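REQUEST FORM: STRUCTURE PREDICTION
Request ID: SP-0412
Submitted by: Lab K.M.
Chain count: 1
Length (residues): 328
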Amino acid sequence: MKNATIKDVAALAGVSISAVSYILNDSNAKKYSKETIKKVKDAAKKLSYRPNAIAKGMRTGRSFSLGIANCWDMDNRVFAHILKGVVACASKLGFSVTICPNIDTFSYISYYENRRIDGVLLIAPALSEKAFDENVHINKLIDANVPFSVINGISEFENVSYFNFNYASTTFVATDYLIKRNHSKIAYISPKISSDKSELAQRCLGYEQRMNESGFKTSVIDSNDLTPDLLKNYTAVVANKSDTAKLVLDMAVSSGISVPDDLSVIAANTEYYSKYLSVPLTTVQFPFEALGESAAKHTINCIQNSAEPIIKTFNGEIIEASSVSNCK
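STATUS: Completed
RESULT:
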């Protein structure tokens, strides 16, 4: 059985071919009555009609594909969740997603100029990665007039849309979670915080801010200096990430410190293994898929309607497990 054509839809609905084209592409469809629009859409559904994407692209000058310029490893969990959100949103809006290779050679520019993509989502790496020059990439996109948005950016260009992670929020909500369970002797444990690792610095600030709000003494410990005797001075620990929390758990177990009875532990990020540790770990996680969906929706809106630039920041959210209890 051959695929239905736009001519078949027009014949079944009793309207012109141009009317079908306008209505199914939502282009100038408002000039038709609700009854006519319903006839066309019902006919298309009955015939299982699918518009020809190539013909549509030739007519509109678009590829209906959103380009991904990604700086994370392809198998990175964060990237995978962001991409899932991007793909889900793009699909709903009639777009495909194209991964642009070799970001260092600015391949996304040639993809755009050759009409293989209509816009770009630039996914910047973790803030501690200094080899990536975000400003150079943004200037390239601006100079080429590419509609784009930046995910996880650290630059501050005017008229550029950003969808960023609030790293300080992860430790803020983690510390708040402990304080609400009557903990006040809370240590923050992290690799050495230096000026060239801004993500580490932001996470530390979130912990310090929440402790200061409650009038509690802060205690920031380099993970390399951690000892069982140090742990015994606290009722709870906020770890910058799950790998640091695993170090704390392992040290506690080997030293006879019970988690969570003697020591509550929470990590300011979530890894695939977090819930499989010796004590299932309470963690904080960003809504990666929601961020991906939001960034994709806005970028496609920029492509179609020249939307105004926005800055949207996403906070961390608690994922409860077994490593935290109320302070006795």
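NOTES: The mean pLDDT is 88.
Reviewed by: T.R.
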